[in-house]
Amino acid sequence: MADDAKSPLDRPGQVPEVAVSRLPQYVRALSQLLADRVEVVNSQQLGEMLQITSPQIRKDLSYFGRFGKQGRGYSVRHLLVELQGILGLDHGWNVAVVGVGRRGRAILSYPWFTPAGFRLVAAFDGDPETVGQQVGELTVRPIEELDWAVRELQVRIAIVAVPSNQTQQVIDRLVGCGVRALLNYAPVMPLVRKGVRVQNIDPVLALQSMTCYLASEGLGPD
Amino acid sequence: MADDAKSPLDRPGQVPEVAVSRLPQYVRALSQLLADRVEVVNSQQLGEMLQITSPQIRKDLSYFGRFGKQGRGYSVRHLLVELQGILGLDHGWNVAVVGVGRRGRAILSYPWFTPAGFRLVAAFDGDPETVGQQVGELTVRPIEELDWAVRELQVRIAIVAVPSNQTQQVIDRLVGCGVRALLNYAPVMPLVRKGVRVQNIDPVLALQSMTCYLASEGLGPD
DNA sequence: TAGATTGTTAATCGATTAACAATC
DNA sequence: TAGATTGTTAATCGATTAACAATC
Is it the case that residue B205 has pLDDT exceeding 60? Predict the structure, then answer.
């Protein structure tokens, strides 16, 4: 909100989305290097870990600043901290889960989110049977509380795991309460207004696009 | 393998990967239209369902043939059948699941795969506790049987849901047995030789790339 | 025939790669 | 200083969009 636009993300139009989408991969690789007590890494090595070319990595990083030292490479710790800052992973985002069926339950039970910079703070379900159950660290709340609680907890990120036919409506409601980033597990492509981001997790689609190549190579099972 | 290259996918170099990756979405939308008794659809309408521009759709389809009628649009049933054929979804691919932890269990229990053109035919796990259990329609086999069974069943597609540190090794083994398409659920980027396809399902990465935009818009939770 | 929509060609746009000067 | 690797500019590549002729 400051007037003097210094951060490269105050001008996000300049940064290609693909570059942003690769940043979390860099963070992950750097975390691993840090855990392995590696102190310095160059773009070549980082590229090998992730199967990305080294100029690609240097170019991606250059959109956000100058983090390396010529002739030497990047300080693992320093680059990691910088990228986490750029991605906002140091914020501890509050995340809500909507839909506590099988999928939602799995998400709530796994402990991956906290280390990744997220905090699961609320779970909602429409089924009275499910409401009140303890799943992972949370007690499932009735869907009626959604608007109130999402605003109260300043939730900006939601994971939606409700049936396809309810997805659009649930997402509209969440967006109305201030949610700006959504992970959707239903096999539909929800429509959201500009400024709101949706990522669809759709393993079947991923699988189906690969069969195309198998089919063309005569690898059919018959 | 035929000498007379008629099918557009005998020359897959010409077809952009992005176009192929959109085909399953068209299949899904067309299936829905068919279920809704819609007989004809045009590129505009299809585009609205999927948030893809109409010229994009026409271009994608044009890589594979001429399926529409000018002035009228596409026959839902005909286009659906054609695209299913191109993607090889009419084959009934045999699919193996490796790793029957939480994630693998969820995959085996859900019934989405068969309608999508896949048949889960084997499940493997290294843990003697898990081996022999009935999960969904299948009995979990010991990992030792993997090579034999994958060859025997002519499995070309595998879903890998093993811990990160075992993923590369399991995938190498599967590829050695003839698997050519893999869905990987571990947060690592496995390396495979040319001609083998991997799709990584990585919700945390998807989530982390969205926070970048939230952070830059001053929507932090503090 | 008139109207509509496809299929395709050409123009634009954006992302990747190559190459190298800057510099640690 | 010599060697190495970054950061950046320019060239290439590929994908999307615009526009329209073909044709149902």
Answer: yes
